Amino acid sequence: MDRLYAAAFAALTFTLSTTATAGETPAPADAKVYFIDLNDGDKVSSPIDIRFGIEGMQIVPAGTEQEYSGHHHLLIDTTLDGASLDVPIPADEQHIHFGSGQKEARVELSPGEHTLQLVLGDLNHIPHNPPVISERITITVE
Length: 142
Hints:
By secondary structure, the protein is mainly β. It has one domain: Immunoglobulins (Immunoglobulin-like). The chain is built from one helix and nine strands. The chain has one helix spanning 2-19; strands at residues 32-36, 43-44, 48-55, 58-59, 69-76, 95-97, 104-107, 112-121, 137-141. The longest helix is centred in the first third of the chain and has 18 residues, at 2-19. The radius of gyration is 15 Å and the shape is globular.
């Protein structure tokens, strides 16, 4: 029961912290992104095949101006919050862009524990308002 309360508190805290700021492109309140076939606590081998799920919005290539659409970004061992939700998501080893509208990827990760999170970016790589962000999961690469 304590885990249920802790999960509810974490979800509420996450919701309050991420809805306070975001880019200008609107997203439906019920839109979500998530990992398909990859869960918190999974033990995997590298390279990892990751499939991205989405509900309530459409996936389109970066630069495409279309209502309720965007493209995936994979965050590895990092997070976005506060003012970083108002600017383009960086492109580096921790912020992987899928600007061609990809819905899956093969990712190389070093052995050990890693966190993964999906963020939907608008035509300019800026998170939507409210942000469409997955649960942050932790995996172990063996």
